[in-house]
Design brief:
The protein is built from nine helices and 16 strands. By secondary structure, the protein is of the alpha/beta class. α1 packs across α9. The model has no long low-confidence stretch (mean pLDDT 96).
């Protein structure tokens, strides 16, 4: 087949990688068992690293970027999926080891596909995207560790970002008292509309962490890591749980064991890339019931695929807010 279409392709030169909009053909696509007509992808922090080359995300070149996608099955070699099915893919090494979602067509493995709940359009699915799906995994982890509504304050760091915005909306809808951490006061009204009941400046969580500090949080969703996560851990209440899912502030963790051995605190690691299928399906089913669509729309902007390189640079600088959906056909 000689049909060509657009994709954001990362290529390597002189030891550095950078992605740009290029035409590719169906014949260029990997030999996987399901062909998807992609409708939307989205912008995540990892996408910013991959597209700009600021992080060594792509393991081979050329690489189509984009860690998730939503669209319609065009061809299927798997009995579980048929042409016309609406599907979503998050993670599984897309944009790293496998070609990803910044493409108008994609061949993916049927084992990666989740049938899109009827509650969502493909655009709404990518308004949620990997960031929102990760936020739901964090909420499930807090619930698994008995963080219940009404038990105290739940902190969300990086609250104006993709994971943080969805986490604030979900936790507030479930009845939690949510405190949002952000360094951008201009986002306070936005976060209040999503359900945040209070704020803490991110600078307060970026100081050198104490081994243990005054108890404050019964739960937390952290996408920052480094000193921020260490400070959050030191401030956890007895039996509290932190769901850690990111490293926007760094991959180090200068923390003490005191919160774990003196307060029984749980640090729950959240991996969205290789999460088992039953957990993915549970997360999407819960998103369909627990994420207010009005708040999802309020946190979402839609941009054409041609702007991905520009947007990738912006997300690394903390200049995006909420969820950015990429219309791959615009």
């Amino acid at each position: 087949m000689s049909e060509t279409f657009n994709a954001i392709v990362a290529e390597e030169a002189d030891g550095k990688s950078k992605a740009s909009l290029k035409p590719i053909s169906v014949g260029d696509l990997p030999d996987n068992d399901v062909l998807v007509d992609v409708e939307y992808s989205t912008l995540n922090y990892k996408d910013g690293l991959a597209v700009t080359g600021a992080g060594r995300i792509c393991r081979s070149f050329p690489m189509v970027c984009g860690i998730d996608l939503a669209g319609t099955v065009a061809e299927s070699g798997a009995a579980a999926f048929k042409p016309g099915d609406k599907v979503v893919v998050n993670g599984y090494g897309m944009s790293e080891a496998h070609w990803g979602g910044y493409s108008q067509k994609a061949r993916v493995k049927s084992d990666w596909l989740v049938k899109l709940p009827s509650a969502f359009t493909t655009q709404e699915a990518m308004a949620i995207g990997t960031a929102g799906y990760t936020a739901m995994l964090c909420v499930l982890a807090l619930e698994h560790n008995h963080v219940a509504p009404g038990s105290g304050e739940v902190l969300v760091t990086g609250a104006a970002g993709g994971v943080g915005s969805v986490a604030v909306a979900l936790l507030a809808k479930l009845g939690h008292t949510v405190v949002a951490s952000t360094g951008r006061p201009e986002t306070h009204d936005y976060l209040s509309d999503l359900g945040a009941g209070g704020f803490i400046d991110r600078a307060e969580l970026a100081d050198e962490p104490k081994p243990i500090a005054r108890e404050r949080w019964v739960g937390a969703v952290d996408s920052v890591g480094s000193k921020t996560l260490a400070n959050v851990l030191s401030q956890m209440a007895y039996g509290g749980c932190v769901a850690a899912c990111g490293l926007a502030g760094g991959m180090d963790l200068p923390a003490s064991v005191f919160p774990f051995i003196l307060r029984g605190v749980t640090l729950a690691g959240i991996d969205s890339v290789m999460a088992p299928m039953d957990l993915r399906i549970e997360a999407w089913e819960r998103l369909a019931t627990d994420l207010p669509k009005g708040k999802l729309n309020a946190m979402t902007t839609v941009e054409p695929m041609s702007k991905v390189p520009e947007l990738a640079a912006a997300i690394l600088k903390g200049q995006t807010r909420g969820r950015v959906v990429i219309d791959v056909n615009a």
